Automatic annotation (TrEMBL):
Keyword line: DNA-binding, Transcription, Transcription regulation
GO molecular function, one term: DNA binding
Official protein name in the record: Putative transcriptional regulator
GO BP, sorted A to Z: negative regulation of DNA-templated transcription
Amino acid sequence: MTTPAGGGRRRPGQLETEIMTVLDTAVRPLTPGEVRDLLEPDGSLAYSTVVTTLTRLFEKGAVARHRDGRAFRYGALSAPAGLVADRMSRLMAVEPDRATVLRRFVANLSADDERLLRELLQEDPSAD
């Protein structure tokens, strides 16, 4: 596993989120090397790690890719927040005791996040 420039291990899914943020803000699709250079210009992030992560994001339908010479270029199909929401949904889908998981999740929210969640639950879902 790679480590961020500040040291220590990345949290699970953190590199995916960082890559999605880079792709989401890019003005054009990027090669894995360009993504790596934007994430960690010092070269501490392995090229193969970026390629593997981009391939997994492609397989999840989060990024598009097209061949450009010998390399692929990648572009975001969804925002980084969408990737996190999808990850949460997948985790919930395999948990038989969803009520307990949700109860514990809400119990660990900050007061501001709990208030935001309550507001979101009151919104009309057809308003999107």
